[in-house]
Amino acid sequence: MTTTAKQAGLVNWDGVSFTKVKMTDHFWRPRLEVLNKITLPSCLEKCEETGRIANFAKAGGLIEGEFEGIYFNDSDVYKVLEGVAYSLMLERDEGLEGEADRIIDLIAAAQEPDGYLCTYYTLVAPDDKWTDMEKHEMYNGGHLIEAAVAYFDATGKRKLLDVACRLADHYDQTFGPGKRHWVEGHQEVELALIKLYRATGEERYWKLACWLLEERGHGHGVGAIWDKPEWGPAYCQDDVPVREIKKVTGHAVRAMYLYSAMADAVHVSGDPAYVDALQRVWAHTVERNMYVTGGIGPSHHNEGFTHDYDLPNESAYCETCAAIAMVFWNHRMNLLFGDGKYADVVEREMYNGVLAGIALSGDRFFYVNPLASEGHHHRVPWFDTSCCPTNLARFLPSIGQYVYARTDQGLVVNQYMQGEAEIALKNGNRVTLKQQTSYPWSGTVQLEVSPERSGVFTIQMRVPGWCRGYRVQAGGEWLSGVEALVERGYLSIERHWAAGDTILLELDMPVQLNRAKQEVEADRGRVAVQRGPVVYCIEQGDHPGLKYDEITWSAFGNLRVEYREDLLGGVTTLEGKDGNGRPCRFIPYYAWDNREPGFMQVWIREKEEDQLYKF
Amino acid sequence: MTTTAKQAGLVNWDGVSFTKVKMTDHFWRPRLEVLNKITLPSCLEKCEETGRIANFAKAGGLIEGEFEGIYFNDSDVYKVLEGVAYSLMLERDEGLEGEADRIIDLIAAAQEPDGYLCTYYTLVAPDDKWTDMEKHEMYNGGHLIEAAVAYFDATGKRKLLDVACRLADHYDQTFGPGKRHWVEGHQEVELALIKLYRATGEERYWKLACWLLEERGHGHGVGAIWDKPEWGPAYCQDDVPVREIKKVTGHAVRAMYLYSAMADAVHVSGDPAYVDALQRVWAHTVERNMYVTGGIGPSHHNEGFTHDYDLPNESAYCETCAAIAMVFWNHRMNLLFGDGKYADVVEREMYNGVLAGIALSGDRFFYVNPLASEGHHHRVPWFDTSCCPTNLARFLPSIGQYVYARTDQGLVVNQYMQGEAEIALKNGNRVTLKQQTSYPWSGTVQLEVSPERSGVFTIQMRVPGWCRGYRVQAGGEWLSGVEALVERGYLSIERHWAAGDTILLELDMPVQLNRAKQEVEADRGRVAVQRGPVVYCIEQGDHPGLKYDEITWSAFGNLRVEYREDLLGGVTTLEGKDGNGRPCRFIPYYAWDNREPGFMQVWIREKEEDQLYKF
Predict the structure, then answer these.
(1) Is the CB of B485 less than 8 angstroms away from the CB of A288?
(2) Fewer Cβ atoms within 10 Å of its own Cβ: the N or the C terminal residue of chain B?
(3) Which stretches make up the Non-reducing end beta-L-arabinofuranosidase-like GH127 catalytic domain (chains A, B) (predicted)?
(4) Nearest CB to B515; choose among A480, A531, A614
């Protein structure tokens, strides 16, 4: 780490690949099984049905026909391939791999001799390439690169990686200092190029990514978006140079992919101007523009941000992809700065904003995630713009990467999921970790720590932001004293570890009532129920005879906490009597719209009591 | 119960005597031992040393000498005797009983031939009896009556009870319809007369109590207090007729004793005007004029109330007796109305406002209970006006009475304390209850229910107002469905009970941050930490180098919850890092000023975070 980086408060923790983490829990493990059995095959089928895969065959001249769909449809195929790759890393599947190989051959065929690859332009407007920066040419390419790196890691097969490198080289030859300008309308390629640099060691990819970041905000943007006054350059974060960013603006997914790439850039450069910009825009995003579910981007109009504290519930846009992108960004921030507040956001997204995007059945999806619905919003199997299902397809199998991180002094436990992991410390000592927990339904976590060679190192356990009270044991002893206090979201347990030593962490996981800042007009006089990381909602099916927005909740109401194995794939429900004494059931927000259609609400009207003191 | 009573929402539960409840817990049991070994003997000694006991001997002509002390000093002797009686009911002690008998002989000797008893007037101003209603003549008498009833219950000895009856008869002959008016300046005799009615069955005592209540607010008051414009009749609740009371006013202890007697009156009469007045003034007291510790009466000037939301911390008066009197009143309200919100107040007082009044050593007391101190407020062994130590002496041994109540359908568990009890249901079936819990440090309670004859009845378990989430088992099965939801503060478990059946109640007991209503100026921008029923504070001794009011607390701070057997008689401490990252320890408020002197604060300045959502 450079001196500059240290001065900027960077810790630069190492991520730990999800391939090192085997989940055996009752919450995520069943979802991954559904993903393999249902979601991935169904996404591939939809890509086939909608001509997304055929577009490659057509562009490669293997079959006749016209381009079908929208200009960014290539990206969906890449994202499903990336998901397939992650899935293969967890579990070999010859059928799935064979199908992936078949598609990769078509992709390779579609690449033009100079490396260019975007079936829309090849088939529809070959002479108009690189004329409209909003047309997602590099966005498509970015997803290709991510898929290629993943598939190479999963299988060792280079074919798609070679296609990706040729494409990246094509970009590099066409754009850059002294060459053409380019402001990619939909960011994605920047973080992909950094991945490609890491996979190949080729610094030109890294440099191109940084150049693309620096291109923004200087008036180089050209294309349909830039010409529309109601959107303008802020829509795709081309309004100010990235190092001058103060506020989150425009399209939510684009913004998050941009900040993710900036965090990647800081990881290497330690550039203090980037650090400042990231911390400013993080605060602006999380402290003024994030729903309690982790959802971001309230507006349908620009699929993004409007003005501070504008967080309407019924009309909330909260694209599933934006929640996923928040995970990408916050994970990177966590590794950069070593602060648990970023892992808190990762957790908030994982259990709420992201997970709501997919039905329990695995084959129906939300693109838009309102926090209240009168009953007409439902998941569907696919969309014309199907970025969200395909983003889930690659997000879910890789979720294990958010659990651990590696530090100079040892390791970090960021998320709690039952399973096993093997992590090599920086000194090479391999540590096997066995996590036992029924998180997110219980706050008790037992971690068995078995280093190959016993020795002194530090294990940091995250104490989530929602958790006020905790207890912790190491080696059978309750820890006390100043050394077991939480700092920047973590307990740090430095001791001599030998095989079989355990940490027992007990996080209080009470029912909590969220109240929003007064500035949030939509939530005034309302509460949102939360338990642990899980945000709750009420659904019509549990409240026969009651109307939308009729239920009230008293801050002093008592809720029976009940784990229901038979309900919604196994959920903890909260049941009590509402402000009018009527039975009332809260279910996890992520699980809504999996039964009969009906209203749903996260923010419930609060019955104002005359009590002097409120918790 | 009369039809009127039912219409007024009265349930008229039966109280269960503390003699039926044997505590075996680690919280209250040791305090009762200290009470027996230290507090009672030390109070008797102080009564001796200060001439309080000798005043009786002098008034009875047994020894020569002048009256010593203040005109209400008789009451302290009576209150200690009442405490001795309660203690004897729990455990025989020949030494203590012998000493009580000796004092009772002196008291009997001091009674004048017509039944009059008040050593101040007998010795100092025999011709001025019944001329100043503020001179506590009946207040003294009320405490005599309470002691007499208790001592008769404890020992079967009638001597003091006979003295009490003669005194009450003297009152009855002197005052009442067609006789003289009387507005007792310091209420107490009213509830005592109702006790005497219950002990003797003599309706004239009950009627006299009701007449005394009705005397108030009609301009009959005469005496020093009434003549002082800065106090006036509101000081002793003589400003309005009791059935028209809307707001709590004046001296806090007097007000609470008045409302307690009114609740006793309603218990028999069901008078809807009294019901309305009680519910109005309860809301006004609890919702606008009660500290988070349960303390009431902010002002030193009148030992009582000022204006709504006037709850200063440093200068809080919060007399220990007023907290005890809140228990008396709220216990009666709970039995009358069957609502857990009154038992919530009982609990708040028990673990905070009342308990802070006595040192862990049992021989030092607070009269005044501020919620913040710069370091100059300390418990002392005795006061010239020693109502508070002597009130604690009678309150603590009888604390078991707040645990259970009996209903038409079965029984109620109001407070959680480990121990055994035997309660006869209304149908005569005797139920043995074994409560296992480490409350207030844990919210898990196991109750073994063993009826003599198995059968169907209902057990109501209180779910405290501070508890948001709970789980409950009966007979080994988790309860679910609408029937296990909380109504008016209780879970009602109706089932067939056989010997050895158990209830397991798990109350979430997280660390909680109290915030006061905006109207409370003193607490603006501040939080008070609470866990379960226990309100916490910070003390200087745990924070070397830090100044008064320097510590801040973030709503998102994490606290390590640690039971410390070695500290302050065994307490759960909460430790974390304050808003400036400095180690910070919270201890129970009741336990403050038991170590080196220094500052103390309950309401800590809140570090304002920019977070959108707050729990």
Answers:
(1) no
(2) N
(3) 20-400
(4) A614
